[in-house]
Amino acid sequence: MFRPREMKRTLIIGAKQDVEKTIELLHSLEIVHIIDYQPSDAEEPLHLGTPTEKASGVSQNLLKLRSSAQLLTLEREPPSVSEKISEKQIQRDIYLKTQDLELSVLSLTETKTRIEEHYRKIDERIRQLQPFAAMNIPLENYQGYDHVAVFTGYLRDLKKINERLPKITGEYELFISDEKDQMIALFIAKSYADDAGKLLSDCGFTEVKLPEGEGLPKQFIEKWTTQQKELSEKLVQTTKDILEFRKRYAEFILASEEYLAIEVQKAEAPVLFGMTDYSFLIDCWIPTDDLPRVKEVLEKEMEGSLYLEEIEVKHEDEPPTLLKNPRPVRRFEYLLELYSLPNYRDIDPSFILSLIFPLFFGLMIGDIGYGILLILFGILFMKMFKKSEGFSNIGWYIIIAGVFASLFGLFLFGDMFGLPFLPPAGETGVVAYSWSSLLGFHIPIPSVIHKMESLGMTQLLVISIIAGFLHLGLGLLIGVIVEKHNRKHAITKIGLLFVLTALALLIFVMADWTIGQWLKPLKNSVVAPLLWNFFIPLVKAGFSFGGLLVPYISVVFGALGIVMIIIVTGGFGLVEVLEVTSHLISYTRLAAICVAKAAMAFAFNMIGLGLILSGNIAIGILGVILLIFMQLMVFSLGALSSGIQAVRLHYVEFFMKFYKGEGIQFNPFRYVRKYTTTE
Amino acid sequence: MAAETGIIAIGAGIAIGSAALATAWAQKTIGAAAVGAAAENEKMFGKGLIYMVLPETIVLFGLVIAFLLWTKM
């Protein structure tokens, strides 16, 4: 759980005629990560492998199928497939069916395109003829004159033309459509055509070209409209046919496409191998747990004709990372990979992340009302983005954070939507609003920590520092484990651990009265004598410096840590001392966000409740609307900033102590089947 | 006494206010660059986020000082 799965580097060597069978076997094992073979220099007898003979044929078939799938939009909107098709059945059908399929799909889609095109053409013609329809003049009458010029088009200023045209000549005839768009047809003696043209352009004339043909435009339009109707019926039918076809063959096409993709993958696998004229070499990583199984299968199926050799993992090798976590934790691997995939030699922090990330997130929200809202929002989020793995994981984080937020709200802060269940002691008036006073009955959920009081804030700050101390301390401890072979780094980390402890003790002593209060319940326990007779006096013994009590133990720890760091790194490591200090203070953001969010909710509640309880109904309704809006704002801002800050505390403060990342994803030689099965 | 409290309050305000401004200024530049990097290469998102939130610690220093001053009021 805390380490990626252990890997063994293995060489598989065999005779060239066995290469296809070996590929089949490795592919069916689904657990072998093949390393791309890099020929080192020309001297070596090994060269890169080439795809097997069937590769190009299979690729071509795959292309054909893909084009069919694309024409049927199978990729964009994949249909739900009821059951997987067996590979044997596909092998039997594929070469017969693919050819027919391609032809049918092509002819169907072509018919559809042809009909659509025809329809569009008729549409275009109707549009051209439409202006002439109202004129009721057969088309042939517009042309073919020796002494008459014809103008057809739209005219803006009809009055002007009626006035001025008679002044040019009387030998004309003007037809005006009775439609609003003022289409005209002007027949005029050819000798006056130039003058008429000038006049027309003065009157805002736009020419409309005469369509070809003979007969009354109205009749044409009627004929074409009927044609269009027939065409659209045909189109509906063809579309139906295509859908029918798609429905009938979708499973087969998708399954065959997958089958061929797998075949191509296998056929091209030798590109990853090293080859000589008579043999091949596969260099691969196999998880140690699976190695015996792989060996056994290869041994049995190939009857001992393969040679397997484990090579020792060298320091400069970079084995691929395959994380191994229980199901609920696996969702948090996504959050980790968003930062960087763990490297093979890293500790896998997914488990720690899955506990502490929602804890921090929840602590910052710390309110049962917002907590329940978070849970609901998370569920909604997961439902909405079922298909996206990343988003549904984020939904899961939100749900868990909501649970923690509700728990903190119930048992620590005792508040809901920024309003405490019980009024703070000694307060009156608006400040003392609480669920108990609003609803009129006593709700016995006390606030252990009041976010809005000075004492509460100090307590929160101390909690933040404790959280930071534990979190950073854990990070440094892991760092020591990871760096155990690198003495210099390990000792620096131990030194930092001392410095961190010194700082934390100093802060705890400063906040003496808070911590003292929390220790009270331990007074009658078994550890009490040890605590009060030994630890507390030890920590509290110190000297005063500028009004601050500096415990001796802090000085000792701090000095010890710094000396260790100076000895191993020279002065340079002291930078890390500063870094640890700032990282520890960085955890006060837990308190800061918690209080800032509470203060915002408190202010909005005062405004909203003030309006609601004002006694005026109109103002009251306004108050309700305003309050809901403001609460949603607090919720969304709070959730967003808490989430980001919780992520940050891990990515920056925690991971910097031990995490290297930049791992290579374990990518086994296999195909994730969706539509086919080997059974 | 009242005047003294007022001065302390102003001091606390300046402490957190100026720290917040400094953070905002730093984040403005880093954020723009990080979004640019993430647009080119999605893998930069995690790293970009880290660089982006680094300066937030500055405002927390301001907060701590403001808090220490506030307890003196």
Describe this entry's structure for a reader.
The complex is a heterodimer of chains A (about 675) and B (about 70). With about 675 residues, chain A is of the alpha+beta class. Chain A is built from 21 helices and 16 strands. In chain A, a hairpin with a 6-residue loop joins strand 6 (about 170-175) and strand 7. The longest helix of chain A is centred in the middle third of the chain and has 52 residues, at about 215-270. In chain B, about 90% of the residues lie in helices and about 0% in strands. Chain B has three helices and no strands. In chain B, helix 1 (about 1-40) runs antiparallel to helix 2 (about 45-55) and helix 1 packs antiparallel against helix 3. Chain B starts with a helix and ends with a helix. The interface of A and B includes residues 644, 645 and 648 of A.
Give structural attributes.
heterodimer; A: 679 residues; alpha+beta; Alpha-Beta Plaits; 16 strands; 10% strand; B: 73 residues; mainly alpha; 89% helix; rod-shaped
Summarize the structure.
By secondary structure, chain A is an alpha+beta fold. Helix content of chain A is 59%, strand content 10%.
Shape of chain B from CA axes?
Answer: rod-shaped
Helical run tally of chain B: 3
Number of helices of chain A: 21
**Count of individual beta strands of chain B:** 0
Derived from helix and strand composition plus strand pairing, the structural class of chain A reads alpha+beta
H and E string of chain B: HHH
In oligomeric terms, what are we looking at? heterodimer
Strand content of chain A: 5-15%
Q: What is the averaged pLDDT score of chain A? A: 84
State the separation between the terminal residues of chain A, measured CA to CA: 33 Å
| Rg of chain A, nearest Å | 41 Å
Uncertain ranges of chain A = none
Q: Largest sheet of chain B at a glance? A: none
Q: Residue share in helices of chain A?
A: 55-70%
